[in-house]
Amino acid sequence: MCGVTPEIRELIVKARRNGKQVADIAEMFNVCRKTVWKWAKRAHHPGGINYKDRSRKPHRIHRKITPNVEDAILVLRESFNWGTQRIMVALLSPPPYIRYLLETVIGEEWKTVT
C-alpha cells in the first residue's frame, strides 16, 4: 500500500461512488481490486473517512513473565551458561542451591513459576 497516496485513495472512493466498476478503477489507478474494495468499504462506514494509513501498533502488549522471572532467567543464563530448556526446568522446581542463588540476587523469597 505504500504506493497509494491519500489523494489517490480519495479519488478511488469518489470514482466508486460515481458508479464506476471496480475493475475499471483498479486498472485506472494501477492498484488491485482488493484495494478498491478496501477503500470503498472504509468510506462507507460512518464517523468520517480518513485516507491516511492506520497504525499497525498493537492496542495492548501482554507481558508474559514478571520482572522477577526475567531477572531469574538472566541470572541463570549468565551464572551457569544454561539454555532455555534447562532454565525452564530449574525455575519450575529449583534445587536448594538455585533457590538460594535466586533469593540472594533478586532480594526476595523465590516463588516457583507456574
Q: Please outline the major beta sheet.
A: none
Number of domains: 2
Q: Identify the CATH architecture of the largest domain.
A: Orthogonal Bundle
| Oligomeric assembly | single chain
Distance between the termini: 43 Å
In round numbers, the mean pLDDT is: 87
- Detail the poorly predicted runs: none
SSE topology string: HHHHHH
Q: What does this 3D model show about the protein?
A:
This protein has 114 residues and is an all-alpha fold. The chain has 2 domains: 1-56, Arc Repressor Mutant, subunit A (Orthogonal Bundle); 67-106, no CATH class. Helix content is 58%, strand content 0%. It contains 6 helices and no strands. α4 (67-80) crosses α5 and α4 (67-80) crosses α6 (96-106). The model has no long low-confidence stretch (mean pLDDT 87).
How are the SSEs placed, and which strands pair?
Layout lengths: L5 H12 L4 H8 L3 H12 L22 H14 L3 H9 L3 H11 L8
Please summarize what this structure is.
The protein has 114 residues and is mainly α. The chain contains 6 helices and no strands.
Descriptive tags:
114 residues, mainly alpha, Arc Repressor Mutant, subunit A, 2 domains, 6 helices, 58% helix, 0% strand
